[in-house]
Amino acid sequence: MDQQMNEAVREAVQIQTDWLKDSLQRENDEFLRNIDENMKKVLKGL
Hints:
- By secondary structure, this protein is an all-alpha fold.
- It contains 1 helix and no strands.
């Protein structure tokens, strides 16, 4: 029983970790796109 509970908890934690990782990666990608767009605008103004 303890083994099953440990595996269930481990799987739940892994699912949550994966979700957070994906969410943060999307946020980071958006941040980098914004930086890229802003750099292009600045360079056009030079």
